[in-house]
Amino acid sequence: MRRKVKNRNIVKPDFLYNSQKLEKFINYIMWSGKKETARKVMYAAFDVIKEKTGNPNPLEIFDLAMKNAGPMTEVRSKRIGGANYQVPREVRPERRLALAMRWIRDAARAKKGQPMHLKLADELIAASKNEGAAIKKREDTHKMAESNKAFAHFAW
User: Fold this and answer.
1) Distance CA 140, CA 156 (A)
2) How confident is the model over 1-27, as pLDDT tens digits?
3) Contact 77, 86 (CB under 8 A)
4) Cα 72 from chain centroid?
């Protein structure tokens, strides 16, 4: 039997760009409940994006990066007859956004030797151009789903 659907917390849009997606990403960046620090990092990254790309609206680049980094298919493990199969599944839009945000954040945190706002800006610009560590992660996920296509008939 399926689990009960959880009532998700609806995030209020951020006050500078009036974007719900951006506020959610600020929550992803936040560490130890320090939301104001996460906001400063995000807005500083947006200033760097404005400077580097020449685009007066960095929200466009942010949205494009989220769209590019989100996977279309992923593999889920399913146990059938004592064996575990990696079954390819389509990704729901909410999960696609969550994975994109997590991968971009982790890719930025993995870089060393720069302040977080610069690393984040670089990763967002790279993802908007379909390159970078988050995009590589998406490609790996797609490859895994493609190579396990033979088990698609096990999908539930």
Assistant:
1) 23
2) 778 888 878 889 999 999 999 999 999
3) yes
4) 12
CATH assignment of 20-154, among 3.40.50.300, 3.40.1080.10, 1.10.455.10, 3.10.50.40: 1.10.455.10
**Cα angle value 33/34/35 (rounded, 5°):** 95
pTM of whole model > 0.85? yes
Residues in the chain: 156
Reported for 101-109, long-range contacts at CB under 8 A and 24+ positions apart, including other chains, are 101/24, 101/25, 101/28, 101/66, 102/28, 103/69, 103/133, 103/134, 103/137, 103/138, 104/65, 104/66, 104/69, 104/134, 105/25, 105/28, 105/29, 106/133, 106/134, 107/132, 107/133, 107/134, 107/137
